[in-house]
Every structure is written in structure tokens, then in C-alpha cells.
Amino acid sequence: MIDRIKSLEAEAAKWLADTAEEVEDFRIEFLSKKGKLNALFDQFKQVPKEEKREVGQALNALKVSLENRLEELKSGLSVAGSKKGDGPDVFLPVGLDGLGSLHPLTLVRRRITEIFARMGFSSEDGPEIETDWYNFTALNFAENHPAREMQDTFFVSKEARQQDDVLLRTHTSNVQVRLMEHKKPPLRSIMIGRVYRNEAISARAHCQFHQAEGLYVDKNVSFKDLKDTLYHFAKEMFGKDTKIRLRPSYFPFTEPSAEIDISCFICKGKGCNICKKTGWVEIGGSGMVDPNVLSSSGIDPEEYTGFAFGMGIERIAMLKYDINDIRLFFDNDVRFIGQFKGA
Ligand code: PHE
């Protein structure tokens, strides 16, 4: 009996219908009063008592499956295809919902590039695998300076002679040096890319993230120019009421140096969880390019001055889109990355 149930199910699964009449034929064949299903139900009386339970369940399941098959044929969605061809119908229109969307980091990256392009900044790129010289020494990090340790560097190879060490860049400031070596002032560029630090991965920190580096070198570039540029950027990125605050800080390659804070646009400076009740959130570091950095890149510090800044892209995206876990950017779960529409 179980065998007969199975073969009837297989027979129904193979049944194809292109017209309403053919669907009706299916119903008559399997599900009508005199159909094959009822014939099996009639035989149920003869099933030995100890098998009744098993056979009864199989029969009920068959009934459900036949009814489903009838619905499938009715809606024209025959799983096995239609009589006209064996495979799925390739001419069915494609749902536009399946189209891809841009990663939130790409959206933020593009927006940053656009804002700075309108201020005359070109876009430049540099290597992620770098030598000690470009990542540290040329940026005025003294050989045993503790700031090297603070950067949690991933070394690719550590040579006996310090200046030959190869590493994964810990910031995008390496591109500043490469740029100044190859182009003469006036220089006005934005450099966006991936950086690496040997940090434990958590909701707030990752071993890889992105930075946007900015550099402006010319005659008479002042700290006021830096402040104006950052202020304009903050308003464009986070809204016109955004304020900025520069806090004194230290970087070997800038003097004076400052951390860049923006007023918390979520609570409008009143104090919330995002800004830890301070009304301000940090987005990066900045300062006037140290004369030593200009000279190591072949630019005369007597003639030129410049400013530089570096901002965390994930940080900006997290603030902009209210994202509370940095790991989400790298998991590539489409339920997360597919929900952002524009920065
Ligand atoms: N490179 C610094 C960092 O990664 C940021 C910075 C860039 C600071 C340029 C000053 C000037 O923290």
C-alpha cells in the first residue's frame, strides 16, 4: 500500500498542464470522487490493523501533496517546467528587487570624495603594503618613538635594518609622503583607502578599517584654512547646523596637532549615548604638516606650509547611519549592506 501511495505521488509530480482543461484532467484523474486518491482510500479498509496508523498518515500526506500540485498547475508554476520545455521559464520577467546596492562604506567614500572635489581636492591612491620609511620614518616618527608601538603594526617582514621593514600601513598618511615626493606644490588631495592595525576585533574596533587622508600644501597655508575646510566638510556631510571643535593633540608628522570633533547631530549637542553625553564625537586627527615631513619629501619648508588630516570612514558611516557594530561592515550580510541608499 505504501508503495502504491509513493508511485501515485511520483505520477502526480510528473503531470504537466499548459491549459485549464489539462489542469482539470489532473483533478479528475487524482482528486475527483472516482479519482485515484479515493480509490486508495477505499482500499484502506483492508489494511491490517497494525499498519493502519502508518498508511493513514501517508494517505493524508498524499492528499495534501496532490492538492498542492493542483494549485501549482493552476498558477502555471509547474516546478518541473511546462510541456514546452524542461527547465525553468527563462522568459519570465526578473524582479527588480534583486538588483544590488552600494556598500555603506562606498557611499560614504563617494560622498567624501565629492565634497572635497568641490573644494578643489584631487583623489589619490597609495599602497597598502608599505615600507617603514613611508609609514613611519618619513613622517617624523623617531626610531624608537613610542608612537610606533601605539600603531599596533602588522609586519610583513622585519629586517635587521629598521628602514627596510615591510608592513601593512597603519594609516593613509603614507600617501602624503609619496605624493609630495612626486608632485610639487600647490598640492590639494584626498586619499582614501584601507589601513590595518593589530587590534582585537570588537563592536568598536577592527584589525582593518578605512581612512580618508587630506593634504594641502602651498604658500601661506594656515591653521585657519584647515579649520575652514573641516568645518565646511562637517556641514556638508552631517548637516548645516553641525559645529566642529579642534582639541590639542600629538602626531609626529603635524605640529600643532588637533583631534577633530563634530557636534553630535543626533542629540544636537544635548548629550546622548552616541556622544557619551558630551555633545561631541571624534572623527579624526589633523594638524599643520611638520617641516621635517616637508623636507623628507623634498619640499622646502621655508617656502611652503601645509595642513593634513585623517578621518575614519567607518566612524563617519557609523555616525551617519546610526550603526553600532563595526564588524557589520566586513561580514557582507546583504540584509545589512543592502539597506543604505545614499550618504
Ligand atoms: N594618521 C593619523 C592617524 O591615523 C591621523 C592624521 C592624519 C593626523 C593626518 C594628522 C594628520 O591617527
Helix and strand layout, with pairings?
Elements lengths: L1 H13 L5 H12 L4 H8 L5 H26 L29 H14 L4 E3 L4 E3 H4 L10 H5 L4 E3 L8 E3 L4 H10 L4 E10 L11 E11 L4 H16 L5 E8 L2 E10 L16 E10 L1 H6 L8 E8 H9 L6 H4 L2 H4 L6
Parallel strand pairs: 1-5
Antiparallel strand pairs: 2-4, 3-4, 5-6, 6-10, 7-8, 8-9, 9-10
Helix pairs in contact: 1-4, 2-4, 5-11
Describe the structure.
The protein is α+β, with helices and mostly antiparallel strands. Helix content is 38%, strand content 20%. The protein contains 13 helices and ten strands. A hairpin with a 2-residue loop joins strand 7 and strand 8. The structure holds phenylalanine.
Query: At CATH's second level, what is the architecture of the largest domain?
Result: 2-Layer Sandwich
> Which small molecules are bound?
phenylalanine
General form: elongated
Number of domains: 2
In which range does the helix fraction lie?
25-40%
Find the structural class using helix and strand composition: alpha+beta
Biggest pleated-sheet summary = 7 strands, mixed
Q: What is the fourth-level CATH superfamily of the largest domain?
A: Bira Bifunctional Protein, Domain 2
Radius of gyration from the CA trace?
Answer: 33 Å
Low-confidence stretches: 78-82
